[in-house]
Amino acid sequence: MKTNKRKKIFTWIWKTLLKIAVFLFCFTIIQVLALKFINPPFTPNVAWEWAESIINSQPERRPRYEFKRLEHISPHLRRAVIAAEDQRFLFHNGFDFKEIKNALKTLIKTKKLRGASTISMQTARSVFLLSSKRFYRKIAEMYYTVLIELFWDKHRILEMYLNTVDWGTGITGAEAASQKYFSKSARHLTSAQAALMTAILPSPHIWSVKHPSPYIKLRQGQIMKDMALMPLL
Questions:
Q1: Would 18 be classed as within a structural domain?
Q2: What CATH number did the domain enclosing 181 receive?
Q3: Under a CB-based contact definition with an 8 Å cutoff, are residues 202 and 168 in contact?
Q4: What 3 state SS string does the chain have?
Q5: Within 10 A of 82 (CB to CB), how many other CB atoms are there?
C-alpha cells in the first residue's frame, strides 16, 4: 500500500512538473512571437523602476523609455553598437563561441572574467528578464536568446536592443539616452555622439557621457574607427 501511495505521489509530481514545463514553453513561444510584431510598452526593468518610484514617492526617478523604429535611430548609433558590442552580430546564431573562447582564455591567464554577451543575449536579457546575477537568470537568458534568434531577424533584434538596453540610471533605450545626454532625438546623433554613448555601455551606471574620462574618450576613438567597417542595418 505504501509503495503504491508513493508511486501515485511521484506520478502526480511528475505530471504537475511536466504540465508547468509545457505551459511555460508555450507561454514563452507566444511571448516571443508576439513581440516580433508588437513593440513592448515597457520592459521588466522599466516596470520595476516605475513601481519603485511610486512606492518611494520619487516621481523624478521615473524611468525614461520611448520606443523608436530602427529607421528612426541614427545609422551612426546602429554601427557603433555593433562595432563596440558584437562585431560578429550578423554571422552568429546568438552565441559568439569565438568570443566565449577568448573570454575563457583571459579568465585562465588573468583570473579576471570579461563579458562575452552578444547583442542577441543582451536583448533577451533586457526585453524579457529583470536584472540579476543569479545562475537561473543566465539560463533563462540563453533560452530566450535561442528563441529570438529562431523567430526574429537581425533587424528586429537590433531594433529591440537599441530600444531596451540600459543606458544609465532611469534611462532605457537610445531615444531616452539621446534626449538625456544631447537633448536631441536619436535619429540626429552624429558619429562622435553615437560612439561616445556606446563607449559607456559596458558600465552605464559608472561611466559618464557628459563627463567622459580619458579611458572613455579612448574607447570613443576606437569605436569611431571600427564603425567604418561595420554593416548598416
A1: no
A2: 1.10.3810.10
A3: no
A4: CHHHHHHHHHHHHHHHHHHHHHHHHHHHHHHHHHCCCCCCCCCHHHHHHHHHHHHCCCHHHCCEECCCCHHHCCHHHHHHHHHHHCCCCCCCCCCCHHHHHHHHHHHHHHCCCCCCCCHHHHHHHHHHCCCCCCHHHHHHHHHHHHHHHHHCCHHHHHHHHHHHCECCCCEECHHHHHHHHHCCCHHHCCHHHHHHHHHCCCCCCCCCCCCCCHHHHHHHHHHHHHHCCCCCC
A5: 25
Q: Across the strands, what pairs with 64?
A: 171
Q: For every one of its 233 residues, what pLDDT tens digit does the chain have, with 9 covering 90 and above?
A: 556 777 888 888 998 999 999 999 999 999 999 999 999 999 999 999 989 888 887 877 789 999 999 999 999 999 999 999 999 999 999 998 887 777 676 656 665 555 679 999 999 999 999 988 788 899 999 999 999 999 999 999 999 999 999 999 899 999 999 999 999 999 999 999 999 999 999 999 999 999 999 999 999 999 999 999 998 88
Q: Nine-digit cell at 94?
A: 546568438
In a domain, 28, yes or no: no
Range of the domain at 45: 35-58+68-227
Number of domains observed in the structure of the chain: 1
- Please report whether residue 29 resides in a domain: no
